[in-house]
Amino acid sequence: MNEQTATNLTEVERARRVALAVQDVSKTYGATRALDRVSLEVTGGAIHGLMGGNGSGKSTLIKMLAGVVTPDEGRLSLKGGWIDARSHTPARAKASGLHFVHQQNSTFPDLTVAENLALGRGFESTAVKSINWHAQKARARQVLDRFEIDVAADAHLVRLSPAAQMMVAIARALQDQDDTDERGVLVLDEPTASLPKHEVDVLLTALRRYAADGQTIIYVSHRLEEVTAITNEVTVLRNGCVASRLTGAEISHDTLVAGITGSSPSSKQGGSRRSNDVIASRVHLSQSAGFRETALTLSRRTPNGTTDERLLVRAGEIVGIAGLLGSGRSRMLKQIFGATPRDDFDVTVRSGTVPPSDMRTAMKRGLAFVPENRLREAALPELSIAENLSITSLSEHSRVGWIRPARERKAAQRLINEFGVRAPSTRAPLTALSGGNQQKVILARWLQRRPDVLLLDEPTQGVDIGARNEIHELVRAAASAGTAVLVVSSDFGELAALAQRAVVVSGGEVVDSVDGPLTEDILNDIVYAQEKAL
Amino acid sequence: MSHTQDTANVPAASPDAEALPAPVGTAEAEQKRKAARARTGKARFVDFLESYALLVILVVIALFFCFWPETSSTFPTLANMRILLASQAVIGVISLGTLLPLLCQEFDLSVGNIAGLSAIMVAASVSSNGSVLGAVAVVLAIGVVVGGANALVVTRLHVNGVITTLGMSTILGGIILQRTGGLAPASDIPQSLTNFGTGLVAGVPVIFITLLVIAAITYFVLNHTSLGRQIYAVGSNMDAAKLVGLRTDGLRAATFVVGALLCALGGLLYVSRAGGASPNVGATFLLPAFAAAFLSAASVRPGRFNVWGTIIAVYFLAVLNNGLSLAGVDPYVNDYVNGGALIAGVALATVLYRRRTT
């Protein structure tokens, strides 16, 4: 340590320089301007927070830095001089010391810590080119010491705590940085999204230590508390533009929220659309103001015998579930339907209680569930459109187990017309359709059952804007026909457009509720406020 | 299953008219419609070619052997046709037994030895008491016990199906060896059974008709019943099938059990045709059965494993082998042809399927 103190001064001075700068970068996707002349300056040795709501351009900016997305214009400065941002590539990002650690898929859970570290750079080999496990382990221990990670080199990664796994991923990204050389920039993309609370602190402490050591870190997160706790400077994006730049004491919950949501609700782009939505939802509200019966109740039995109602949805009502990534919003829908074991709440619908893990009974009780991941959890890709539609209603189309094809096809044709599915024929395989039309098929599959309760998870993910509006219309129509709709969306604009009121979920619990009319800004405000309160 | 939405689907006052094209009077529209019909006619022809490519190739090969000087005197004879049809019936039934789990994306590698064990046990059973009914009981018992064991291990213990059935196949091989000592048992098969295996109805082998009947039943269950649809849904996307309320484990288990029953029945048919059983017969069933089941995706319904595709594939491979043997080629040529046909056929199925869906 003593040898280093002499060089530390100049080291600090050097580190004060700008480690990474981006100037006037723009990127347009079709009609959407994802980034609009965005500039960013990251001070060497600082922890720089990058924040923004959904659709703010945050992830486009990160992808641009990684060289995965080519911007339309702009300049970039990494080590030394400026380059045209359009010529940036993944290889160049790596060469100039940008290290990315993503929340998922960056490590191999079944391999040991030493193997994970080696996969980032190559194995220590013996003279005959076989892996020298002894040297490998020794080197891993050295890296673990340097990053002060208290785990065994031959431990399997899956056995470590989530925070330790994340630290191994960081160590792997940074292991080749030479201490004396100019340091690169570590980009952490939502590193705490899947970490429990106490683990977050462990990771943040480690990050502070690395920063104090001179490591520059870009910290991408939606968690205000963490950003206020560890960053020295913050850039907030909104609608593809830089909404605010904050340093030091300016960084607070309020200034961040102001940046994320925009201080005045009537921003120039969304203003007119939003007011329309507000009117629309008011109309809906007045329509459903008649004393509609309760369609869905989530309740919890308290220790002293009373029941505590957490969520209540009336027939004909569309209720949004708002929450941040990792808040358990999707899990809650699956738990209601019985696809995932339930924690400790009861679900009651009109026709009785819904058992904890019995989807068939849930369906009989009038529940319907459109999952988030269409390809993995909803599509029957090789089956025809008619077969995809009838799968939830086989008993309707068959007599003592025998399917009646004419009836099935007729029903499919009727649904295709009713739901505006653009399909060559009812016999075409589902994969012949576009994403939006596939989603309409999935929706029709459930709505043909006239469910009492429709659970919708990200109903328009990966769907173009036209189909998105059509799907919204279909959901509204189902609601006005008496179905209670509970919808999860990471796009608060979608919730505002669709739902009459919303509940806020955090840590798998309903923690707040917002009565309509909803706007994207109100939802952002409340969700982030909740984040602070926790 | 009566629930609140029962009435939703009954098209009592169904607006079917929407589905039909609106009546158009003008000559121009008439012409357009004709053009459209011609187009669909052409498309239908392409569809037909795609769907029945394997059948067409089968016919072409058969015609070739009819006229090829090497085989023109031996291949197109009534006797050879009967042998061809009858000899493949056993493989055909076992192929259907392989097809069922395959529809759920499960491999049953024990199909060959289930049939082999069944053949041994059936031969022993009928030799000792002469009862065909007893033989049927043996078939049922082997199918239910072995298929049930496979199903339980796969669905309850969550062991990979390939591993489970490979292990099961090895165990069954052991049982066969233990019971026979590696030698074909002397057997006294009653006339009633061998008559069934070698008999003709209207000049067609009974055993081939049996195959067609079994195939027809399997086809109807798979394609015209709710159960069959659910099996296809599980094979298409197990997670999605679960989330629409299907009993995915039960369905997979059912395909293992019914598949094993068909294989055991294959063993019985073998005894009836061969008039005995040999301990090594199981191993010779496995690969042809898998080849046929896989090749089924190349015909009738491209991209989907299916019953009639399986039957066509069985006879496609059989005609190929039969013709080559009659021509007197060295046996290794058959191996080349079988392997090549399997790979080419499955590649064809994949290409056709991708072309259709993109």
TrEMBL record, chain A:
Pfam families: ABC_tran (PF00005). GO terms for molecular function: ATP binding. Keywords: ATP-binding, Nucleotide-binding, Repeat, Transport. This is Sugar ABC transporter ATP-binding protein. Residues 20-264, 291-532 form the ABC transporter domain.
From TrEMBL, chain B:
Keywords: Cell membrane, Membrane, Transmembrane, Transmembrane helix. Its main location: membrane. Residues 1-24 are annotated as: Disordered. The chain crosses the membrane at residues 52-71, 83-102, 109-126, 132-154, 161-180, 200-222, 251-271, 277-298, 305-324, 336-353. It is found in: Cell membrane. InterPro entries: ABC_transp_permease (IPR001851). It is a multi-pass membrane protein. This is ABC transporter permease.
